[in-house]
Amino acid sequence: MTTGLVLYGYWRSSAVYRVRIALNLKGLAYETRPVHLVRDGGEQHAPGYRALNPQELIPCLLDGERVLTQSLAIMEYLDEMYPGPETALLPVDARGRAQVRALAMAVACDIHPLGNLRVLNRLEAQFHADEAQRAEWSRHWIATGFRAMEAMLVDNAATGRYCHGETPGMADACLVPQVYNALRWKLPLDDYPTLRRIHQACSELEAFRRAVPEAQPDAPKSGK
Prior knowledge:
The chain is of the alpha+beta class. It has nine helices and four strands. It has helices at 14-26, 47-52, 71-81, 94-111, 117-127, 131-154, 170-184, 193-203, 206-209, and strands at residues 5-9, 30-34, 60-63, 66-69. The protein has a four-stranded mixed sheet with strand order 2-1-3-4, covered by helices on one side. Helix 4 packs antiparallel against helix 6. The protein is globular, with a radius of gyration of 17 Å. The protein starts with a strand and ends in a 15-residue tail after the last helix. The mean pLDDT is 96.
């Protein structure tokens, strides 16, 4: 599908990663405009980008003249503006939508913010946390969230091959980048068999493979 979508982001950002997955699941073409989170003190703080997103965060999606921020809001916007039963990111029923939103928010609102770059930088600047301490901090909060998500999914009749049913959606788009973070921080996943199974199912899909950080045009060859 031809669109005028432009995605501002950074190759390893979890929030941008989940939007890339959503765009791919919807079959939407988009232009990538990198925003380096470290270079020159963080390009997200530059005046030009601040004019787009006063929060100075990524992602930011342009749809024509519309400026959209916050990954969950962007995904719901895409689902409403570009509907299709085979590409729906949310179920049609109210209970299903509530369940998917709860799972997505468990990642986007509870787990991910505590391991965000600006939080880790603050731990270092204010409390002198070294790399090992920041890694342990990240593992703790990912494990706390994953325990809850595993319990939410394991005995739920709505859980299928994916977080909700037999097609991937918004919850899966949030889960997969967080598993990427867990592996990056060397968190063992043995205690989360349902999450691991769903992650594997998603990893077999082209929409998820094309969204991986290392496949992005701004990803450095060194992976740093």
